[in-house]
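As practice, study what follows.
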Amino acid sequence: MAANIITTEDLEDFGSNLLSEIKELLTKHGRVSIDHWIKSGKVMDKLEISPGTLQNFRINGTIPFSKLGGIIYYDEEKINEILVNNKIDFNRKAS
């Protein structure tokens, strides 16, 4: 019986193909639009926060997230919504 050797390249190809198939299935069934999901780096840049602050936001529920295969994704629309909902208007006239 011959032994099959799996290389790092084989695993990378498998992972890439698997993620592509998952994305295709999710978008095909209209459940998720992949385009509006962003990774932690983009969130930190957008909000100008550190990795620790972003982790605290996840822990305390300030920012919702999804985790897939060890990668954390954030709904960009939800982040924009959170920013709008937490807007403080100092120009508001007192009644």
